[in-house]
Amino acid sequence: MPTVQELYELWAGDSELADDLARSLEPRSTESLFETFAALNPQPGQVLADVGARDALHAIRLARTHGLRAFAIDPMPFHYELSRRAVAETGMEHAVEVVEGAIEELPLEDESVDWVWCRDVLIHVDARRGLAECARVLRPGGVMLAYVTLATERLEPREKRELIEASAISEESFHPESLEAAARDAGFTLRSVDRLGSEWRQRMLEDGAWDVSDDLLRVARLLRNTDELVERHGAPAVSVEWGSNVWGVYQMLGKTCPTVYVWEKHA
Length: 267
What we know:
single chain, 267 residues, Rossmann fold, 48% helix, globular
């Protein structure tokens, strides 16, 4: 720990550390997730399940890029309609089938797909059931690519509790140890894990695609005016707004860690 004198001397002086921190570390962008999938060498005609597809844009892109057949699966009727519209607008009806269903009970036959793509899903569900279902529908030797944001040791207990409540997170699924154990128990072998940390967020800031100051300003206004906002909009809306605005900030601070897993089903 520096003394007070050392502290002020460091603040006042020129700092090579400051110069180092001013230089970009050339962070990867969100495109790296598609590059990771491409490196796995998918083949034309193989079948992919996009589990938690939202608007099906990922399923459409993967099917088009690699010549795959794809299922765009999501449990929400709103996302189902968005997916149907996107598939029709892109003319991909021949390659992408939109299916309403949840990861805990996938509406697919046993050993019917070669790939599972799963982004931003596992922490919101019972990951043990979800991973077991993904293993069930994969053919032996099939691969699951999962992007998930996990808690780190920097996330304080109260912060974790508030984030879990605000963002509909399953506490057990929020920790790397329990998630990785669930994957092993489901019959998966870990091929690779890429702990991205704040890398994507750094790139968003450098590209001007995300404004952290806007999120921080919203958090500050929310904390200053919580009671009135709760009275006007309801506690659930305020909680969700808080969670949405600290999500990226916590990634930047290392309190949560976006992570990419590549799991292979035992042959």
